[in-house]
Design a protein that fits this description.
eight-stranded antiparallel β-sheet, EC 2.4.1.207, signal, alpha+beta
């Protein structure tokens, strides 16, 4: 199955830690599973199509509905990854999401770790957003947005989440792009409860593209997002047996980004990050406790948008996004 059982926790989680301690190519040594071994359809009926014996899945958005899938198991920590190819042409209002959440179980105090891909009008690129919540802390938005160094609609690219008891690392094509270190002052804002893994495509016309200025235009439908190379390498939790403590005891939290990958991450953030809540002076007079301020990042964002990241008079930041029980149910060479 997709998750590691308790008796294999040490082996599985130690392997997951190797991902960030050694060469990025080690990510490719983790087992790739078939869709049916790790996931099940969530919504969308015929808008979810499985190809190539479970090696490829198409999620479609049309006027009738979006679509999505969900993991069989709950996980507490691990490494989770998929290769994704996004729809092309006019995609304003469309959101493709690859994320972890327990919102269906914890209505008022859910945890969440997100990759969200925000569509755009013709001639403008997709934007990528990362975010996380802990214990229902949705009032403290922790969004970051980025331009990508490739066209994500032309080929498959790998998007990965590493989640431990002390940090979260987001990767694109094995390059770390964001690291969140848990601090004591964060309290329950750091995701700490078991979550399931989701992928969805849905109509987010109200907020996704320029704050809702551009909406989904269904004359360009169907919009198809393609998923492959599924990796689910974590501690599977049985909510009946409540083996969460065993997951925590087995967890090796010494996940470190090696120096050459740290440089790549810094270069990516200095050149491709277009929004970070940590620098939004209109939103937070004092940055949230987990923020580590970089003078280079601050200067790059200030040049990009002086009002938001300079004197703080106006906020154009991460954009409001609605939470859902399951997101969407309603409806080349790097330059660094």
């Amino acid at each position: 199955m997709g998750g590691c059982h308790v008796c294999f926790l040490f082996l599985c989680l130690s392997s997951a830690m190797v991902v960030v301690s050694g060469s990025s190519s080690m990510n490719n040594n983790l087992p790739i599973i078939a869709f049916e071994d790790g996931y099940t359809p969530l919504f969308g009926d015929n808008n979810l199509i499985i190809h190539n014996d479970g090696k490829l899945v198409h999620l479609t958005l049309d006027q009738r509905t979006g679509s999505g899938f969900v993991s069989h198991e709950l996980y507490l920590h691990g490494y989770f990854s998929a290769k994704i190819k996004l729809p092309a042409d006019y995609t304003a209002g469309v959101v493709v999401a690859f994320y972890m959440s327990n919102g269906d179980m914890f209505k008022k105090n859910h945890d969440e770790i997100d990759f969200e891909f925000l569509g755009n009008i013709r001639g403008r690129d997709w934007r990528m957003q990362t975010n996380f919540y802990g214990n229902g802390s949705t009032n403290t938005g922790r969004e970051e947005r980025y331009d990508l160094w490739f066209d994500p609609s032309q080929d498959f690219h790998q998007y990965s989440i590493l989640w431990t008891d002390s940090k979260i690392i987001f990767y694109v094509d094995n390059v770390p792009i964001r690291e969140v270190k848990r601090t004591e002052s964060m309290g329950g804002d750091f995701p700490s409860k078991p979550m399931t893994l989701y992928a969805t495509i849905w109509d987010a016309s109200d907020w996704a593209t320029d704050g809702g200025k551009y909406r989904v235009n269904y004359k360009y439908a169907p919009y198809v997002a393609e998923f492959s190379n599924f990796v689910m390498h974590g501690c599977g939790v049985d909510p009946i047996d409540e083996n969460v403590a065993m997951c925590n005891n087995a967890q090796n939290s010494k996940a470190n980004i090696i120096p050459k990958h740290k440089i790549k991450m810094e270069n990516f953030r200095n050149n491709h990050m277009t929004y970070s809540y940590c620098y939004d002076r209109a939103r937070y007079q004092v940055p949230p406790p987990e923020c580590v301020i970089s003078l280079q990042e601050a200067e790059a964002l200030r040049k990009l948008d002086p009002a938001t990241f300079g004197d703080g008079r106006r906020h154009r930041g991460g954009g409001k996004r609605r939470h859902h029980q399951s997101k969407g149910r309603k409806a080349e060479d790097a330059s660094f």
